[in-house]
Amino acid sequence: MTPEAAFIAALKGLASHPAARGLADDCAVLEVGGETLILTHDMMVEGVHWLAGQDPADVAWKLLATNLSDLAAKGAEPIGVLLGYSLAEDNSRFAEGLGEALAHFAVPLLGGDTVSNPGAQTLGLTALGRATCHPVPSRSGARPGDSVWITGPVGAAMLGFEALSTGNTSTDTSAYRRPVPRLAEGRALAPLVTAMMDVSDGLLLDASRMAGASGVTVSLDPALIPFPADLPLERARDAMAWGDDYELLFTLPPDTAPPCPAHRIGSVLPAGPAPLLLGGAPLSGQLGYEHG
Amino acid sequence: MTPEAAFIAALKGLASHPAARGLADDCAVLEVGGETLILTHDMMVEGVHWLAGQDPADVAWKLLATNLSDLAAKGAEPIGVLLGYSLAEDNSRFAEGLGEALAHFAVPLLGGDTVSNPGAQTLGLTALGRATCHPVPSRSGARPGDSVWITGPVGAAMLGFEALSTGNTSTDTSAYRRPVPRLAEGRALAPLVTAMMDVSDGLLLDASRMAGASGVTVSLDPALIPFPADLPLERARDAMAWGDDYELLFTLPPDTAPPCPAHRIGSVLPAGPAPLLLGGAPLSGQLGYEHG
Question: Which domain holds residue B14?
Answer without folding.
Answer: 3-131
